[in-house]
Every structure is written in C-alpha cells, then in structure tokens.
Specification:
- The protein is α/β, with parallel strands linked by helices and about 375 residues long.
- Helix content is about 50%, strand content about 10%.
- It is built from 14 helices and seven strands.
- Helix 10 links the parallel strand 6 and strand 7.
- The protein is extended, with a radius of gyration of 29 Å.
- Guanosine-5'-diphosphate (GDP) binds next to helix 4.
Length: about 375
C-alpha cells in the first residue's frame, strides 16, 4: 500500500519506516554453561573413591586453592580419603632440564600401565611461580600417556613457597591413591631444593643422567646422588652408547665412595634410551627388585612412617610461616623494623623481639 506521505497532497506528519531491531548484545547468553555449584565433601569423596577423574581434578583444584573455604573442604576430603590411600608405589623422578624426563616418563608410564592398574604423574616445580606457568607436568610433553585412559597427569601447583607447593603435591598423592592410582610418579627438575621435598614423599627416587657432557659428575649435587635409589643414564643410543657406558662406570665407582644407604639397598646404575625405548624393561626390573628388597627387610614401612612424621612437622612449619608473614600488620611492622635495623637504629635482636611480641600479643587477644 502506498504510504499517504508519498502523496503530493499530504500535509500531515510523516512517519519514517524506522530501523530494524539490533540483535541482542550477546546472542549466546542463554547457551552459556552455568557454573556447577561446589560439590559437597561427601560428593567429592564418593566420586574420588569411584575413580571419577573429573571429581578427582576438582578436588585437586581445591587442594591447590588459597581460598580458605576451599582449603577447609579440601582438608576434610583428604581426611576422609586417607584410609583408602597408601596402596601405591610412589616414585620420584629427577634430572636436569633436557635429561629426557618427559620422554622417559612417557615410556616408563606406558610400561607400568601394561602391567595393569593406573598411573598418576604429578610434579613439583617451585620455579613455576616465577615463570607464571608450570614447566612440568604439561600434558603435551607426554604425548602417549596423555591419551591413555589409565593415566592422570597434573602439572605442579603453581604458586607459593616450595614447602607449600610440596605439601599440596603430597596431599594430591593421597587423593590419587584413594582414586585407585597404584603408581604415582612425581617429577622434579634436578637443580635445587625440590629433590629433598620429592625424596620425602616417595618410596623410590630415580635420577636421570646424561653422558657425554665432559666431566660426568659435574653439575650434580652430591646430595642428590646420595638420595638416589637408582641412577639411569639416558640417551644410550647411536653414537652415544659408548659414552653412556663410560658414564655408567664412573657413576658406579663414585657411588662406592658414598656411605651405605639407610635401606641397605645398593643403588644401581643403568643405561637406557627413552626415545628409542631401549632398556626400559631393565630399568623397571630394577625398580621391582628394589620394592621387593625394601618390603622384605621392612624399610618400606619404616620410610613411610618417617615421611608421615616429616610431613606433619613440615605442615606445621609452613602454616605457621604463612600465618605470620601473610598478616598485614606484621608485614608493615616487619618493614618498619627492617628499615630501623638497616639504618642502624635498632639491633636485629630487639627488632625481631618487637615483631614477635606484637604477633604473640595479637594472637592471644584474637583467639
Ligand atoms: P626434560 O626436559 O628432562 O623433560 O627432557 P625431554 O624429555 O623434553 O627431552 C629433551 C630432549 O632430549 C628432546 O629433544 C628429546 O627428544 C631428547 N631425548 C629424550 N630422550 C632421548 C633419548 O633416549 N635419546 C635421544 N637421542 N634423545 C632423547
């Protein structure tokens, strides 16, 4: 129909046709997945005991969270899972970056999974706080394992002190064991303090080494070698085989100089190739021999008892530190006193006493 305003005789107001309605600002608004409510403690425990991976992951996320309400749920879940834990072989794996940890864990993991059961791969990487992203435990580094239904790979908790990161990994071990993971690998970079933390939560500590880097024993802290239950020299393939064997002989003679181990086990030195999958079964035979040896002589349980005690003390230490240092009042006072000490206005000891006195007084009144 012709609009009246188009008629030349039309004198009235005109009406324009207007514009089409714009689409909704977010047309997908209604399709958005709603956030699931936080599961209850019993839902989490039930899911974990059933071996449900999604529930396990959620529980681990709560363990890693700094949110106090997440923390308290996590602690309850851990407590309830504890009676179902402990039934795994906990194996620590260390080596400098480039030693071939990811490649080796991929093939060691598949080897272990062929024997049945499940495998959790965890990591302790204290540097991840600095790099704002974990370099360990990244799924893409373990291609074969990451698609295996029996494997659960979790990167290192990414923030906090080494003690905090390690405690969270230790707690994750409990959850994984309750979920039926009977093999736990804990990976760490062999360059610093984190080995001690890993050593204190595993039954067997494997040190991956490389040959052909000049002085074979250079760069490895004596302490790390002393902790190792097995030393394996990777990349024993191609032209490198001879050098790997040479390194094997050197490590063997170096180990002779060390005091006898607490377990009574003599650490073995083997060569293998993670990439070409040579000697994998031999490495794992050694691990099996170790477990039989320490189970027979009772050291297996003794070490776990000592570790339980260690973790109790560590946890107290860590929580006390957090409670103290993350208190805004204390932070301020510490900064003031530090300035006074640096300006030579106060001695270190009276400054420390002032801060501690303040802390204890505050603690007394606030509780
Ligand atoms: P990570 O840093 O200790 O985790 O080491 P990666 O597993 O990432 O390995 C570092 C490099 O060494 C990669 O380029 C691997 O392909 C290579 N590599 C690992 N294992 C072997 C091996 O058995 N033989 C050879 N020739 N190369 C290997």
């Amino acid at each position: 129909m012709q609009h009246p305003e188009n008629n030349n005789d039309y004198k009235g107001l005109t009406v324009n046709s207007g514009v089409a309605q714009p689409p909704m600002v977010n047309p997908y608004l209604h399709n958005r997945v709603r956030r699931k409510p936080m599961p209850t403690v019993s839902e989490l425990v039930e899911g974990i005991l059933k071996g449900d991976v999604t529930t396990l992951s959620r529980a681990v996320t709560l363990v890693e969270s700094f949110n106090p309400s997440h923390q308290s749920v996590a602690q309850e879940v851990i407590e309830k899972c504890l009676p179902y834990s402990g039934q795994s072989r906990r194996i620590g794996i260390t080596g400098v970056p480039g030693a071939g940890k990811s490649t080796s864990i991929d093939v060691f993991g598949l080897h272990v999974l062929k024997q049945g059961g499940k495998l959790a791969v965890l990591a302790i990487d204290p540097s991840s706080e600095r790099t704002k992203g974990s370099i360990l435990g990244d799924k893409t580094r373990m291609e074969k394992l990451s698609t295996h239904p029996g494997a659960f790979i979790r990167p290192s908790p990414s923030a906090g002190s080494l003690g905090g990161v390690a405690r969270k990994t230790r707690e994750t071990v409990v959850l994984c064991e309750a979920a039926g993971y009977n093999n736990i690998f804990i990976e760490t970079v062999g360059v610093g303090q984190s080995e001690t933390a890993v050593h204190s939560m595993v039954d067997f500590f494997l040190l991956i080494q490389l040959a052909g880097t000049g002085d074979e024993l250079q760069g490895i802290k004596r302490g790390i070698m002393e902790m190792a239950d097995g030393i394996v020299i990777n990349k024993a393939d191609g032209d490198n085989i001879h050098r790997a064997q040479l390194a094997q002989a050197q490590f063997r003679s170096a180990l002779h100089l060390f005091p006898p181990t607490m377990s009574g086990w003599t650490p073995e030195v083997l060569t293998y190739s993670g990439y070409y999958e040579i000697g994998i079964a031999e490495v794992w035979d050694m691990v099996d021999r170790y477990f039989k040896f320490v189970t027979d002589n009772g050291y297996f349980h003794e070490r776990r008892r000592q570790q339980a005690r260690y973790w109790m003390k560590e946890t107290i230490d860590e929580q006390l530190r957090r409670h103290f240092y993350y208190n805004p009042e204390i932070e301020q006072l510490l900064a003031d006193r530090e300035a006074a000490v640096l300006a030579n206005k106060q001695s270190s000891f009276t400054a420390a006493r002032d801060v501690l006195d303040h802390y204890f007084a505050k603690f007394k009144t606030s509780k």
